[in-house]
Structure prediction request, 222 residues.
Amino acid sequence: MRKYVIMGVQGSGKGTQAGMLAADLDLVHIAVGDIFRWNVQHHTKLGAQVRRIMADGLLVGDDLAEGIVRDRLAQHDWNYGFIIDGFPRNERQAEFFLESYDIDGVIHLDLPDSEVRRRVLARRLCSGCGMDYNLLASSPHVPGQCDVCGAPLVRREDDTEEALAVRLREYHEKTDPVLAIFARKEYVVTVDARPSRDEIQADIRQRLRLPPCQPAVGAGAR
Ligand SMILES: [Zn+2]
Prediction:
């Protein structure tokens, strides 16, 4: 049984790394943000609650996130363990979580703010079909134009320098104390989130003393 928390700022590749670990080790990947999105899309009671909060321009509260995580973990379908992303979100939840679940490790994907800024400000969105682009990694064939539908690419409304500065400040204000609590118990492995996804994954596994990643299906000799 392996129980991990993964933490990292937006653009740090947290979801990708958690997904890779979960797929290979049979862990349940609990992404709190995805659970909120799923509920909104499927018009559940919780989804309606989340939608109301967001319509008022507010962030989904810590209590709601805590309830989601508690319900999800109470399903006990995580025979081999879990990796959780988007929680705990404050010091109280971190203490509670440590006492309740006997965590094996906290993976902290470390990305300097300057690199977050570079990555996030390179994001583009097709104004026609909604396809995502990143001018650093997946730029379109014709600059400024969608490969699929040809519509102009635009920046997301909240991907401005100013909005990002606010998000980064909020992230550090919330996350740094949580990391400090975990670090006191010596659970945290801090991994450089700048290399390629495979290099980051290898680094995480080495630091957690996990076996190296299995080659992808179809790769290598049979
Ligand atoms: Zn398009």
Remarks:
- The CA atoms of residues 143 and 153 lie 9 Å apart.
- The longest helix spans residues 161-184.
- The pocket of zinc ion is lined by residues 126, 128-129, 131, 146, 148-149, 151 (CB under 6 Å).
- Helices lie at 14-25, 32-41, 45-55, 62-74, 91-101, 113-120, 161-184, 197-207.
